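#struct-pred

JT: dropping the chains for the assembly here, can someone run the whole complex?
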Amino acid sequence: MSDKSTIEEGLVLAPKFDADGLVTCVVTDARNGDLLMVAHMNAEALKRTVATGEAWYFSRSRKALWKKGESSGHTQRVVEMRVDCDQDAVWIKVEQHGAGACHTGRRSCFYRMVPLRQTGAVALEFRDAEKAFDPNTVYGKK
Amino acid sequence: MSDKSTIEEGLVLAPKFDADGLVTCVVTDARNGDLLMVAHMNAEALKRTVATGEAWYFSRSRKALWKKGESSGHTQRVVEMRVDCDQDAVWIKVEQHGAGACHTGRRSCFYRMVPLRQTGAVALEFRDAEKAFDPNTVYGKK
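RK: done, full complex below.
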């Protein structure tokens, strides 16, 4: 098989990390399929997630390995992991522990809708945007 | 509000494009919530998707704007679009026309499972990997 066939049709996990050493990670709620967040994993985060079944990520802003919930207590137990055709993205279905996945206090990061079939300025609309927890309390901000 | 608050709590669509001018796009099946693919949008792809309600992407490998289905006929009608907290990712729920979203012939790009809670070499396992169409026929490869 060509390299492309090996990556797409083979059974060896061979992640295609980008120039920053990351793959994209899509995180859905195992309970209902909702999209909770999109994050990134470097090789170490991926390895720890596979080994432990708990979600680990790499923060691009903080440039640091990060166990989900290490500050908030809102950890994620991975129920299933999949990899995509070209192995530059993984999908994890998680049991979200605690109130939510989003640092703003919502269950999901995707709490605003973009209206479609219009041109010009777009006004977002809140959807499922009620806060599940108070981020100032959870993250101890002053 | 600070810039961070405006981006996270405001109702203005202000996508945070990366160094390559892209945001991540998560594509799920509006019918059953399954993750179909992860792609990228540049400003023009995002604008066209919002304006037309049909999915447009930017191909990182071909470095080209790309209407989903322009080669395969397997277009995607966007039922709902959302944006995440820091506006560097969008989520579209689509009606997938034609047999599938993946260029390998599957309905979804995520047709291999990564076994969890193990160390060492990982052997992927096929899941929902039956081909929905013949890519050689659809894409006219020799």
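JT: nice. Chain B touches chain A through 53 residues (CB under 8 Å). The radius of gyration of chain B is 17 Å.
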